[in-house]
């Protein structure tokens, strides 16, 4: 961040501000109708500890694309390697948000195979994105699997390009994807 407007503009253009901006279709794919679908996964440790340091995560994202929709299944496996509940270790208390296409429709969310009630997923609109937020707690020496299933409507004629843009949260390790 810079208080000097010209510097801030340069940083914004280079994508260095950390802001979420809807991506554009790559020019080589824009010769036909082009649809850009995006997801930004943003985690916030709300446990007043440093348990995220002891956390491993694996991310799997599957997309089935048809002329009418893109069906997404995102599975995140959290593995808390903490050895004790003593600070700075302990339970990883996480509020995880998914910034997706504003027209996306949540179908279901599951934790360890159990479907969450719809009111356990907080859905809002923010800066041109739909935001789906879920609270998860991963106790020490435990794994938790979060599965998010949603769809994005597509309106395609004969030929179209589909681009999925997965923006990684700054500061997180290179988790297996």
Distance between the termini: 30 Å
Global morphology: globular
Biggest sheet details: 5 strands, mixed
Q: How much helical structure, as a percent, in the residues? A: under 10%
Strand numbers in spatial order across the main sheet: 7-8-4-1-10
Please tally the β strands and state the result.
Answer: 10
| Gyration radius, in Å | 18 Å
Mean residue pLDDT:
90
Elements, N to C (H/E): HEEEEEEEEEE
List segments where confidence is low: pLDDT < 50 over at least 5 consecutive residues.
none
Which structural category do the helix and sheet elements fall into? mainly beta
Number of helices: 1
Which band does the percent of strand residues land in?
A: over 45%
Could you explain the architecture of this structure?
This protein is mainly beta. Helix content is 6%, strand content 50%. The strands form two sheets. A five-stranded mixed beta sheet has the order 7-8-4-1-10, with no helix packed on it. Strands 2-3-9-5-6 form a five-stranded antiparallel beta sheet, with no helix packed on it. A hairpin with a 2-residue loop joins strand 7 and strand 8. The chain is globular, with a radius of gyration of 18 Å. The two termini are 30 Å apart. 16% of the residues are buried.
